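Internal QA ticket QA-208
Title: Verify multi-chain structure generation after dependency bump
Assignee: T.L.

Test input:
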Amino acid sequence: MSSLLEINRLVTSFDTDAGWVRAVDGISFSVEAGKTVGLVGESGCGKTVTAMSIIDLLPKPSGNVLEGEINFKGQDLRKVDRSQMRKIRGGEIGVIFQEPMAALNPVHRIGKQLVEILKIHEKISSREALQKAVQLLDAVGIPAPEKRISSYPHQLSGGMRQRVMIAIALACEPDLLIADEPTTALDVTVQAQILELIGSMQQKLGMAVLMITHDLGVIAQNCDEVVVMYAGRIVERAPVVELFANPQHAYTKGLLSSIPRIDSERKSHLSTIPGQVASIQDFVSGCRFCQRMECDDATILRQRPDYREITPGHWVETCPQCFKV
Amino acid sequence: MNNDAPKLLQVENLRQHFPVRGGLMMRQIGAVKAVDGVSFDIHSGETLGLVGESGCGKSTLGKSVVRLLSPTSGKVFFKGHDITNMRQGAIRPLRQDFQMVFQDPAESLDARMAVGELVAEPLVIQKMGGRVTIQKRVAELLNRVGLPENAAGKFPFEFSGGQRQRIGIARALALNPDLLVLDEPVSALDVSVQSQVMNLLLELQRDLEMSYLFIAHDLAVVKHMSDRIAVMYLGKIVELAPADEIYNNPRHAYTKALLSAIPTPDPTAERKRVVLDGDVPSPIDPPEGCAFGHRVNHSRYPESIGRELPFVEITPNHWVQKCPCCVD
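Actual output:
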């Protein structure tokens, strides 16, 4: 069976003052229909650029997908024209952005913003669209939706705004929802509400979710599969239980052991990953985690490691330093 | 926690209100009750963690405690001195002993000053010696927080987020304070860097015997850093207890909800989320009675209206704001 979304050797570059830099450097993964895939990594690792490459929202003209395929429901999204892309985006692929205040239009009432997307993607009258907008707001748990529909974004709280974003993303019942740090700007109790909402809508609509986050807790509790990115590349991907129980790459291990846990001993020394991610223009062609660990093996730093599937669905980058059998 | 340790900081019934002006004459039409009657102590060498959601008043509380704000009412004692209404000139010599580290080092460090100048500034203001002495002290501080020697000549933008936070910490340490107010010091950092900075703070506390008021919204981080934890909701402390106690035996409904909302980094863990409805209400016009009972629409909420909600010690060192709806 072919996957809903299949990304093959995707390369996305940006034209900067320092020359072309590869923010995403040859990544491959897939999202099955109805499943949730988590994309995790530290800031600047290319998570968001991956998402924006899929839906063709890279900042133009500096950002460009240079190589690879993005197969969505059997067609390569790199080859579709702009008007077709516009139909897919918002129609078959819904998107939730991190900061709803920046993603919603501040000068239009939220009702208008919902009606707009419904009218672009579906053949319905304004009155029907308005009715459906009220239903959508109701479905995402906004109290008194018939009143709220005439509110402006600034009149809503952060959690409510994110609910409106979700309503817009789900308006056309997409097959895939891309959620880019959907709860990062929210408090924990509101985060729990929003994650619950995404989960229940996913079940209702049978859609797949690509969840981008840096929070391993969110990944553990909401995803079926995890893709770990480091410096523009995937270092490891595996089913969620497998990844947390049996991490193989040194970076994944480091990441998992450096989070403070509720049950760890108070005030004890936390394990850390030394150093920091190199600047993007300094990335080596070989193993970039070894670059951070100040490895001096020239071959490792030059030669890009291959991937190996160690158990079904568990892929890991086989740098001889970072992955030991 | 050692209860006999001398009290470094005592806060009594502190209120910090901000006027809301409106109308044609910009008269005061209300007040944001950011901090509304809060009492706690910090002992020598202790870390008190302060958690709560955005808008609950935790940052404001931190700022009033170090007198970056002038409290509306209540008392703040530092080493026995009443600093609540002290003039800035009179406070200045005391300021050496309490310093603050801010959340976003990109905003709190002057981008036009070199790191050496930034770290030296408190020393210069407090006239802590000549140029050579100060330079020596700056080098020592940079080394102490794990920055390279040549950092002094560079500018904040040349550093990553974690390193910038180290600059902020070096600056706060310059005068050998007894108390550091840390306002979300690791929230803006990536996981792997966050643990580096947390380790640094723990080491510094051990070596320099400082007390911390550690403000954060990440409960796992706060638990790791703190001896005792205070949970704030809408301007009030609803629960205050030793760190392990608050996690093992939370008594206030809000603390319970907050704890259950943290996603555990373990996919096999059972989910027992108490999903709360609604948001934190506005502190401009807070509901009467128990603010949390109002949010969750508790059946016994009406009983709390018009009643004084006392802050009581239910078991030794475990304090809870008692109300009919949130505490059994």
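Spot checks passed. The radius of gyration of chain B is 21 Å.
Status: verified.
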